[in-house]
Amino acid sequence: MTYSALCRAAAVVAAGSLLLPACTSRPATASLGAAAPNQFAADTVLRRIATAQDERRTPALLPYLNRPEEAYRRAAAEALASVQDKAATPALLALLQQDAEPSVRREAAYALGQTADSTAEAVLVQRIAAEPDGTVRRYVLEALGRCTSRSGLASLTRLPPALAPDTAALSGQAWGLYRAGLRGLTSEAAVSRLVQLLGRGNPTSARLAAANALARTRGLNLAPYAAALGATAQQDAHYAVRSGAAAALSKAATDPTVPPLLASLARRDPDYRVRVSALRALNATMYAPVKEAVWSALTDANAQVALSAAEFFLAHATNEPGGMFLEKANRLENWRARATLLAAALRQQSPEQAAIRRAVQERYTAAADPYEKGYLLKALGEDPAAFDFVQQATFAPNQPLVIGTYGMEALVALGRQPNFPAGRYPEFALALRRGVLSGDVAVMGTAAEAIRDPKLKLQKLLPNPDFLLQARDRLTLPRDLEAWQSLQQTIDFLQNRTTPTATPVAAATSHPIDWGLVSTIPAGQRVVVHTGKGDIVLRLLVEQAPGSVASFVALTRQGFYNGKNFHRVVPNFVAQGGCPRGDGWGSSDYNLRSEFADLRYGEGAVGLASAGKDTESCQWFITHAPTPHLDGRYTIFAQVVQGMDVVSRLDIGDRIDRVELMDSRR
């Protein structure tokens, strides 16, 4: 997936804050092409820099680092953050140490972090104390977190005493520890410092980073810090900090105060995103004391909360009466929560199993919405006795593509069930082979992934990769890249290759940036996404992501997005749409290159989905809340400026009626 970009003004963050709000826009004065021009319209040098970035030409970018114009040095440094070539590290380090302009040093630090070159560690450590500008120092600390070794972690954990009152340094330290934690680098001292940074007196940015670091760093035991985490989860003024602290409490589950606290948050926090995080932090050991609170959450007014409650029962309920789940599911209005609870009913393996299975199959037959039918197939994926029904539904002719996609996922889930009959494994293997040869990219990719799963041990049943080679060679690149990747990885697996086959990423020359179109897009151009739930207004970030915005505008003008669906909605994460197939496996006939501008994923960021760096296409997503683990990994090309309440209500299958460029005089 890719991420949405924030406006250039928001990129130049205040020294004490990295928590970026939705962009504010200038008053609209004219239609597309007539309002304030973007920075590329008249500046050919900036276009050349952006083209060199798009073409990944480091040697062409390096001379711009020595230009007398601050804007060009800054732009070239930021461009190298997308290229991510370690050959540029020495030049970026020199820029960080020697350039007179803070904005240039800032982008040099950002690019060094994006490149993640460990050879930059020593200079970054030295720069913490030597850097005179607070904002640049914050960037240096965050970059250090992306580059540091385990031995260098101490420099992040213990700031020089002179920086103790520096709010920018506190934010940078917290983000640096967060970035290091994502890489698996932490220590008891680092954890203790992060808990300190949760304190109310610290900047919101530092508290957000600390909460996310504690939530996302693996392998932590946070039971000793349960009281501090609980206080933050209940009392912090910012919902995203409370949400992160609630998520972190999952690592403090052995403390007896945690289950009732999370249950209370799931019931009472005023923000649905915190309620979702609290539900997701619950685990099987907490089941009995929190069950009633989760039952209550099934009828929460927000569908994301209700779904999260149903997912809790699916993941953690054991030895419950399946009929009880069936009864409660039948009372739910939200179809995703209902189907998920039906899956929980089937997972219980209760005496009512056959009756529950028949009820789900009857719902499938009666359902008109293909997405609901798909979720019902997912539910049947919990019951091996449903294999024949699911297989028939998966390969039924003349049905919506999404049903085949969900059906193959359900077939794979059935084969992974511990009670799947051993005698039916050859039939299961043949169903996967049929999926690979089906010609449907989603079915092919999902089936191929299952074949290479070592736990399924299908190598003896399907030892010859010829059918996979045949299917792969029928694909069209770059459109079918994701299916190609899955098939090739399975071919490598069956052929016992130790070195993976490289992914054939399309070159920039196959779809260069359309500078003619870019020059007509005003800075701050707005777009309205008309959905069945209401309108969402986006501000396009053409100056940060010219290639991505030009592609989006061209597709919008063609009416490409009209009538598409939101095919993926993950609670408290993203709503994703724009897939021509409607299941996430569709693409345009070209790829774009990733544009990693100096931006952060805050609430309402709009990004491009991808199957890896430089494989972006037509799918895009909107974030429900800050998602900093996506920063610098997915292109941000727009920002929601109106309609986040609509985004919060979106669900799978909701229709994009049309997308239109707004006349800025409106």
TrEMBL record:
Entry EC number(s): 5.2.1.8
Gene3D superfamilies: Cyclophilin-like (2.40.100.10), Leucine-rich Repeat Variant (1.25.10.10)
Domain PPIase cyclophilin-type: 534-651
Keywords associated with the record: Isomerase, Rotamase, Signal
UniProt signal peptide: 1-30
Keyword Isomerase: yes
Cytoplasm among keywords: no
Matches recorded under PANTHER family: PEPTIDYL-PROLYL CIS-TRANS ISOMERASE-RELATED, PEPTIDYLPROLYL ISOMERASE DOMAIN AND WD REPEAT-CONTAINING PROTEIN 1
Protein name as it appears in the record: peptidylprolyl isomerase
Lineage: Bacteria, Pseudomonadati, Bacteroidota, Cytophagia, Cytophagales
